[in-house]
Amino acid sequence: MQLPSRFFNHQAPWMTDDPSPNHLPTAESELRPAVSPDDVLPPIEAPGAGFILQLFIVPAIIVFVIVMVWFMFSWLARGTDDPRLLIKKLSVSSEARYQAAHELASVLSSKRFAAFKQDREAAADLARTLAVQLKDGGDGDREVNLRIFICRALGEFQVDEGLLDLLQATDSRRHIDVRKAALEAIAIRAEYASQLDLPRQIGDEQLTSTMLALADDQEYQVRERTVIALSWLGGDLLLAKLEEMLEDPHPNVRYNAATSCSRLGNAASVDVLEEMLDPDSAGVKSEPDERLRPGKRANILINALRATLILADANADADLRELEKAIAALAEGDLDRQLRMDAANVLSRLKDRARSE
Q1: Which residues, including other chains, have CB under 8 Å from residue 352's CB and lie 6 or more apart?
Q2: 3-state secondary structure of 12
Q3: SS3 of residue 95 by DSSP
Q4: Which residues have C-beta within 8 Å of that of residue 5, sequence separation ≥ 6?
């Protein structure tokens, strides 16, 4: 029997996207009842205590635990800020003493321990530790850094105990960084002694002879720190040496000598201050890294401007006309705007000074 032609032109129901009346439903689809969306979704209920606990309280507890663990490890790493305990740690040969030395230098630089800085016994204990390190300590980086931090901490004391050991640390046989740290500590102590009128227990002769030798040291980094200490230590011999160092071959030493002399009202500093006010001074050119020269130029100029004002206040008879010319050139130059404003302000104050005389 021949089949009707419509059977050959008809697509199977699963092959068409547009069902026609010829696409009959299957028996399964005829039997499946219609489903409402409300029957598919779960019923809406108010959140219970368990849900709120999981969503908010549990994460909050986890965050709290993490924060507390972080604080615990931070506290353990930080250790103590009790300077007496830190000094005791330094006397024990352990890894902890390196961190203790760093922390001690840090805490003593704050105003919180002003009273402790006058503790002679503590200063003597720290000085003994430095003496041991200078005698028996190694030459590795960690040992050198240990001595540096001890020197810095010892320099914060407002007593004379430990000054002799700091002088020993400036010996030319020591590491250059230890020598620099010791000289900075001596300068800080000398400033304290000058401001607080503290008596000096070490004989002036020993201190003076050591500082005079350091002023002629072959390392300019030693000389540039020595010159600062000289101005605070005072005494005819040291102040005469300070003025002599205005002619030091290295600009850093000359500039430190000039600012120190200005603070003392010594007008011999004028020529060096004029040199410092030159944007292309020898001090700027001495910086080997050209990328660092702008920063060094700004530092030199700012220090020169400040020193000029200090000299003007300390010595009313000083002839500052050449400095005024140099400062006027700065105010009208092509420097940074802030530097030009600083120069203009200093120039205005100098002119007010001249009018008031």
Answers
A1: none
A2: coil
A3: coil
A4: none
**H-state helical runs in 79-119:** 83-90, 96-108
Confidence at residue 140, expressed as pLDDT on a 0 to 100 scale: 87
Distance CA 336, CA 330 (A): 10
DSSP code of residue 22: T
- DSSP class of residue 286 equals T
Indicate yes or no: pTM above 0.85. Answer: no
Distances (CA, A) of 34 to 37, 38, 41, 167, 292: 10, 12, 15, 100, 82
- Residue 167, CA distances (Å) to 11, 151, 211, 264 in order: 107, 10, 9, 24
The pLDDT tens digits of the residues spanning 50-86 come to 555 555 565 666 666 676 655 554 444 445 578 999 9
How far are the Cα atoms of 41, 48, 68, 314 from residue 44, in angstroms, in the given order?
9, 12, 39, 85
Smallest CA-to-CA distance from 103 within 89, 118, 119, 114 is with 89
Q: 103 and 86 in contact (C-beta within 8 Å)?
A: yes
| Distance between CA atoms of residues 38 and 332, nearest Å | 83
How far apart are the C-alpha atoms of 56 and 47, rounded to whole Å? Answer: 12
Instruction: Quick: pLDDT tens for 106-152.
Output: 999 888 888 999 999 999 999 999 999 999 877 889 999 999 999 99
